[in-house]
Amino acid sequence: MENNLNIIHIDMDAFFASVEQLDKPELEGKAVIVGGVGLDNRGVVSTASYEARKFGVHSAMPIAKAKKLCPHAVYLPGRRERYTELSSQIFNILLKFTPQVEKLSIDEAFLNVKGCHRLYGSSKEIGKQIKKKIKDETGLVCSIGVARNKFLAKIGSDLDKPDGLVIIKNNEIAEVLDPLSVDKIPGVGTKTANKLNEIGIYKIGQLKNMEYNELKHLFGKNGSLLYELIRGIDKREVNINSETKSISNETTFQNDTSDLDLLLKYLLELSQKVTRRVRKKNLIGNTIFIKVKDNKFNVTTRRITIKKYINSTDDLYKYGKKLLEKVDLKNPIRLIGIGIASLKEKKKEQLSLFTNSKDKSEFNIVIDSIKDKFGNESIKRARDLLKEDKNN
Ligand code: TTP
Ligand code: MG
To answer: Does ligand 1 come within 6 angstroms of the Cβ of 15?
Structure first.
């Protein structure tokens, strides 16, 4: 397969409705419509299962209209928390393949898999593995598009929904794009599409016959972007966003070591550094990972996703230690690293002077501010002091 088809777009199928069918097996194969008062108070359809779409029901349609088209459907108000929970499970799966994940919405992401082929095979293979892992671990079905850029990958994921896996090869671009209606182009909404329809242009292929200057005239500064997109050119990069970004630190030892106590002490020191950066950015995360490289340069990584979002040194260290215990330390270790992923912004909680909370984050914040004022060496944990003794 061509080796520059590195962009993957993934979009869950009928996401909210599929989650409802997953949690209530009696709804499997039935018309399910999520939306209305419970979810957004506007009485519109959030999404409809594919069984309901056959009757013409779609997102943003007034519930009243949906009830006329599909009276036998099961109407549900929606459970945002549950959808968010599954969404973060899905993003954690994606992050196992590559850190290059750009979240677009609750059920949609771009991946750049350029560096992943040695480990996971071709982009098509990676697409298959992602689909399988998501199905096995969550029970949900998604559609995937693979192509050389974002625009084409997104077009691809939409071509064979539900449960699609579409590869758009470079020599197939025109063949795929030309018959599509113009509203498939990002930025071309109903209004612009209508404007084009009025002058007899319905398909992307027809739009290609327009001169560059005509497009500029019609679409202003977006004209040149449009000129490129319809020819399958899209220079946008996959941008890792803070929600999927991770923060980590690693250290290479002067001498390789098999001493578990010493490794744990380094792990604690790294946990301090990592969580300090996490706290500085006012983030919390619920995926913890470690990396170990032995003297033969074999790299082992272990990761775990927990329910609670953390940013305290003790919490990170605790889970890092558990992960390290799962690593086979048969060869001496030359490098160890630890990090947090699935980061999100920590909401401002009401601070109380008399809180009895077990949450260590306030304690950590005090330590951080002393270190900011007096330097890193000003406060040390007893374990760090022990380590210094051992190394001297
Ligand atoms: P989409 O991915 O647009 O739709 P979908 O996943 O339901 O269906 P498809 O198989 O076509 O991808 O949106 C993801 C979720 O976002 C969707 O399940 C519900 C929610 N949503 C709304 O609440 N309102 C809307 O208008 C749309 C489009 C989506
Ligand atoms: Mg979707």
So the answer is: yes
Q: Whose CA is nearest to atom 24 of ligand 1?
A: 46
DSSP H helices in 98-211: 117-120, 123-138, 150-159, 173-177, 190-198, 204-207
Per residue in 111-151, pLDDT (tens digit) is 999 989 999 999 999 999 999 999 999 999 999 999 999 99
pTM: 0.71
CA distance 378 to 45: 58
CATH 3.30.70.270 fits 1-166, yes or no: yes
Ligand having the closest approach to the CA of 59: 1
Q: Where are the alpha helices (DSSP H) in 24-115?
A: 37-40, 50-53, 63-69, 80-97
Strands 165-167 and 142-147: parallel
343 alpha carbon – ligand 1 mean position (Å): 24
Write out the two tokens for 378: 């000003």
Q: Which CATH architecture has domain 246-391?
A: 2-Layer Sandwich (3.30)
C-alpha to C-alpha distance for 290 and 302, rounded to whole angstroms: 5
Q: Which of 50, 79, 107, 140 is the pocket-test mutation for ligand 1 (most atoms within 8 Å of CB)?
A: 107
The residues annotated with a catalytic role in the active site are 108
**340 close to 287: Cβ distance less than 8 angstroms:** yes
Predicted confidence (pLDDT) per residue in 68-103, tens digit: 999 999 999 999 989 999 998 999 899 889 989 999
Ligand 1 center to 69 CA (angstroms): 19
Cα 52 to middle of ligand 1, angstroms? 14
The CATH code belonging to domain 178-229 is: 1.10.150.20
Angstrom CA distances, 222 to 187, 188, 190, 208, 237, stand at 9, 10, 16, 15, 18
Each domain of the chain, given as residue ranges in start order, spans 1-166, 178-229, 246-391
Does ligand 1 have an atom closer than 6 angstroms to the CB of 83?
Answer: no
